[in-house]
Design brief:
With 131 residues, the chain is mostly beta strands. Helix content is 7%, strand content 38%. It contains 1 helix and 9 strands.
């Protein structure tokens, strides 16, 4: 089983990515709305990665995704921004917002997402963390 990290923005400090790399390889990291300043220019606004043959789109704000994910060949679209954990499937494409594993926002849970790829399909899971 391979374990990789995907960061959907709102990194805050680039050193956070180094911390993530200490846990698992970071296969994609994108810039969020709080990631301002020249140091964040190294992060794209959107990334497409292939994992086990599946095409996955990573971006911060789902509102900026105006494509037909299935027609573009994506198996999953992973986002952040709202900090609200959510999993849904649209036309066979997994849409996953894992929430936020950082400091608690509003009354939302502290959570992360797990993306599992089995038999050529992507499956998402929300994992709630204790504060």
């Amino acid at each position: 089983m391979n374990i990789d990290s995907i960061c959907r923005g709102d990194v805050g400090q680039l050193s956070i990515l180094d911390t993530l790399r200490g846990i698992a390889p970071v296969v994609a990291a994108v810039r969020g709305n709080i990631d301002r300043g020249y140091e964040f220019d190294v992060l794209p606004e959107r990334a497409t990665v292939k994992i086990d043959g599946l095409r996955i789109c990573v971006l911060h704000d789902l509102a900026q995704f105006d494509e037909d994910a299935a027609a573009e060949g994506y198996s999953a679209v992973i986002t952040g921004h709202s900090h609200v954990p959510k999993i849904e499937t649209r036309h066979g494409v997994l849409f996953l917002n894992p929430g936020s594993a950082g400091p608690r926002r509003f009354k939302l849970p502290i959570a992360l997402g797990r993306l599992t790829i089995e038999s050529g399909r992507a499956r998402g899971e929300i994992v709630t963390l204790a504060p």
